[in-house]
Amino acid sequence: MSSSLHDRQHIHTVIETALLVAQEPLGLHDLKKLFAEELKAEFLHEVLDAIAQSWAGRGVELVKLATGWRFRARLEYQPYLDRLSPEKPPRYSRAVMETLAIIAYKGPLTRGEIEEIRGVAVSTQIVKTLEERGWIEVVGHRETPGRPGLYATTRAFLDDLGLKSRSELPPLSELGQLVLPEPADTAQ
What is the pTM of this model? Predict the structure, then answer.
């Protein structure tokens, strides 16, 4: 394939269009399928970088997530967009969120190990809720009697949080400050 400026601009436009209309993030494998000719990963990264730069300073940005690239609104514009769909996202119980946090920070681990950390039983409904949401899955089995499943977070979990990997999760010490209410000032 010739790498003339015209061809490069055409490839840029095709990839940009695909990313704009895609419902899910697109990985390199998906982007390669757009073209009959073979495109090298390095070339695709250059095009993706060029697309990201061309959207700099606008209300939408191209981001790399765990499963690929996608366009999303810049965070500073989210409050405006939230007015378009005032329905609230699902609320999860403290038990569900604790279980998810344990799996995200300590996983993969078994249900028994989660229960040991939480200090209480983990109901089947909690696990089912997280699996249905696509945030956790069984990634293997512990080689102990009963071969319990090992739970880990999914790439969809990372995508939903806008992360590339678990290493981008906030430090565990900050997590408590994000979810725990401030103590009331009792000094009068």
Answer: 0.66
